């Protein structure tokens, strides 16, 4: 159970740290941005990320477990996962913290590629883990489009 909980909680830790460092003037600054009509409510983001982080964290546990822990077989699948997680955690400070829309856009575009790469590397290992990443990829697609639109309009 320790590993299951640890892997499942890990993504939340970085998300929480990113929020702590970037939430100060988030509501005021974010509300002033020109956003498209299809932008989700600000209240929806914490709920969505809680579900997404839990799913991706558990999925990473499944991969780690199926590969027998940290070994040479796990380098690429878990390395890709770790890299995408780092870019995921970097986005809020870039966007909300230092208000660098261009860097946030570059970050999320790279993140999209790493998530797709992660899912491709996981598919032969554990299809359930791969499927647990599908909602995350869907949310990222929306978030990428939103980031592009906010960057263009502001």
From TrEMBL:
Q: What topology does it adopt in the membrane?
A: Multi-pass membrane protein
Pfam families from the entry?
TspO_MBR
Q: Which domain of life is it from?
A: Eukaryota
Q: What does the UniProt keyword field contain? A: Membrane, Transmembrane, Transmembrane helix
- Which GO cellular component terms, listed alphabetically, does the Swiss-Prot or TrEMBL entry include? mitochondrial outer membrane
Q: Could you tell me which InterPro entries the record lists for this protein? A: TspO/MBR-related_sf, TspO_MBR
Q: Which residues cross the membrane?
A: 6-23, 44-63, 75-91, 103-125, 131-151
Family classification: Belongs to the TspO/BZRP family.
Q: Which PANTHER family match?
A: PERIPHERAL-TYPE BENZODIAZEPINE RECEPTOR, TRANSLOCATOR PROTEIN 2
Question: How is this protein named in the record?
Answer: Translocator protein
Source organism (scientific name)? Tinamus guttatus (White-throated tinamou)
Q: What is the lineage of its organism?
A: Eukaryota, Metazoa, Chordata, Craniata, Vertebrata
């Amino acid at each position: 159970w320790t590993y299951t909980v640890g892997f499942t909680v890990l993504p939340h830790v970085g998300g929480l740290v990113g929020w702590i460092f970037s939430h100060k003037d988030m509501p005021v600054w974010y509300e002033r941005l020109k956003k498209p009509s299809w932008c989700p409510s600000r209240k929806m983001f914490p709920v969505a990320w809680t579900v997404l982080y839990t799913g991706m964290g558990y999925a990473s546990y499944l991969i780690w477990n199926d590969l027998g822990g940290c070994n040479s077989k796990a380098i690429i699948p878990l390395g890709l996962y770790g890299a995408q997680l780092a870019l995921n955690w970097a986005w809020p400070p870039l966007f909300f913290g230092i208000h660098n829309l261009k860097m946030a856009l570059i970050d999320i575009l790279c993140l999209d590629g790493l998530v797709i790469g992660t899912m491709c590397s996981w598919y032969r290992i554990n299809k359930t883990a791969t499927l647990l990443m599908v909602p995350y990829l869907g949310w990222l697609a929306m978030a990428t489009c939103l980031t592009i639109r906010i960057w263009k309009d502001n």
